[in-house]
Amino acid sequence: MPKTIKIYKPTDEEIFQGVIKSFELENIRFTLDEAKEAFKNALTRIKKVKK
What is d(CA 39, CA 32) in angstroms, rounded to the nearest whole number? Predict the structure, then answer.
């Protein structure tokens, strides 16, 4: 039988947490609102690229 490979897809919240951590590593700190706004902008750009 062929093996099925499960592809792990992180949720938006997990991606958001990863983005926050990477910003913190670079000592760039945004207020939560700014970070969420930037995150939404990034998501809309990603969605536009996928189409």
Answer: 10
